[in-house]
Amino acid sequence: MDVEDIEIQLFVQAMRLRHGHDFSEYAPASLKRRVQQLVRTHESGTVVRLVDRILHEEGFLPRVIEGLSVPVSEMFRDPAVFRSLRDKVLPVLASYPEINIWQAGCAHGQEVYSLAILLEEAGLYERSRIYATDFNDAALAVAAEGIYATREARVWSRNYIEAGGSHSFSDYYSARYDFIKLDQRLRRNVTFLNHNLVTDEVFCEAHLILCRNVLIYFSNALQDRTLGLFRDSLVRGGFLCLGTRENIDFSPAASCFTHIDGALRIYQLGGSGAKALKK
Ligand SMILES: C[S@@+](CC[C@H](N)C(=O)[O-])C[C@H]1O[C@@H](n2cnc3c(N)ncnc32)[C@H](O)[C@@H]1O
Question: Pairing state of beta strands 234-242 and 190-194?
């Protein structure tokens, strides 16, 4: 076995045994790239020296988690997905007196605020609660602030229009120098929480779960576990939205869901397409 691969195994063991963070079921190639990047960022030279710091250095863990997390996102990323949520999912959610939404792997919060805008424009936000979770506390802190670089706003504005937005995107933020600050009213029904999809359990009964571009970092076994967690967290008839490069079709959980918009990875628990439903 390659020496660096042995070191990566030591890294995984150290994270699990010392801190309870289990990366053993992350996709090996991307995990290796992230660990190599950590070695460069912290000028450790080797993975083993990084492991030494993980084991012994107080306060080093959050920096490792930050390096392993890839909190890249956009508002209304893949606008067709948000248009489909607006046109096909929100009208169904409108029949519930209270709407719980779990946004798992929320990164810097761009999707959280996109959802809040969709709900606001559909007149549903007052009775909605968005639980926005991630395992990276630093990302959650950025998300809670809702401050982003001005240069991002142009793309996001285009995404918003393509997603069916009928206002001006600039109605939702104030611009200061190189930054935009999203309207704080958008976060009035958002709860930001640390939740690890590998080790933590169900924590709410959701009508919609959005977890996009997170499963791509997981092995098939961990994807199955996570999809099982989502199935168990949804009310019957609740919706699941994954990233456009992710899929439930090869997981045992698939038999519990109906495709609402297969290409855009929007599914509904139960319904006519579900062959089995263990709820
Ligand atoms: C590429 S971002 C996706 C952001 C957003 N959902 C999107 O699609 O634009 C992946 C996020 O998943 C989070 N993540 C990775 N592993 C996780 C885990 N085990 N539990 C919770 N969040 C995790 C990372 O911290 C990161 O913020």
Answer: unpaired
103 Cβ closer than 6 Å to some ligand 1 atom:
no
CB of 71 closer than 6 A to ligand 1?
yes
Q: Give the other-Cβ count within 10 Å of 221's Cβ.
A: 11
What's the pTM value of the predicted model, to 2 decimals? 0.96
User: pLDDT tens digit string along 155-173?
Assistant: 999 999 999 999 999 999 9
Assess whether the C-beta atom of 213 lies below 6 angstroms from ligand 1.
yes
- Find tokens 């490069």 and name the residue: 245
Distance between Cα 134 and ligand 1 center (Å) = 6
CA dist 229 and 66 (Å) reads: 24
- List the one residue out of 81, 260, 76 whose CA is nearest residue 169: 76
Which of 31, 42, 37, 40 is closest to 8 using CA atoms?
31
Q: Is 209 in the pocket of ligand 1 (CB under 6 A)?
A: no
Q: Name the DSSP letter for residue 246.
A: -
Tokens (6 digits) for 271: 């319904």
Task: Write out pLDDT tens, residues 84-120.
Answer: 999 999 999 999 999 999 999 999 999 999 999 999 9
